[in-house]
């Protein structure tokens, strides 16, 4: 799902809450969701991952920031995920149309 500024929020298992800047309350909420959630920026990079995402993948915030998160996508899904993400960005479309990818630990 994306907000009016083009910031995309994603989640595996449910829809995440879109918010311009994740303040402490939003971060706390996202950290307590029983899903992996993140925020994607219009340039395709990611700048926020919830605590569950970091616990599941084993990546630190510094390792995941920007495009570092790509190492968590299963090799067989990387091309499809990358193409879908670029398509969303090019069309400035809402990302809540869904795609699936295996996330590796």
Mind explaining what this structure looks like?
This protein is 35% helix and 13% strand. With 105 residues, it is α+β, with helices and mostly antiparallel strands. The protein has a 3-stranded antiparallel β-sheet with strand order 1-2-3. The model is unreliable at 7-19 (pLDDT under 50).
Question: Can you give keywords for this protein?
Answer:
105 residues; three-stranded antiparallel sheet; 3 strands; globular
Secondary structural class? alpha+beta
Largest sheet: 3 strands, antiparallel
Strand order within the widest beta sheet: 1-2-3
| H/I helix tally | 4
Terminal Cα span: 25 Å
Mean pLDDT across the residues is 74
Short description:
The protein is α+β, with helices and mostly antiparallel strands and 105 residues long.
How is this fold's topology laid out?
Elements: E1 8-12, H1 24-32, E2 36-40, E3 46-49, H2 51-57, H3 61-64, H4 75-91
Antiparallel strand pairs: 1-2, 2-3
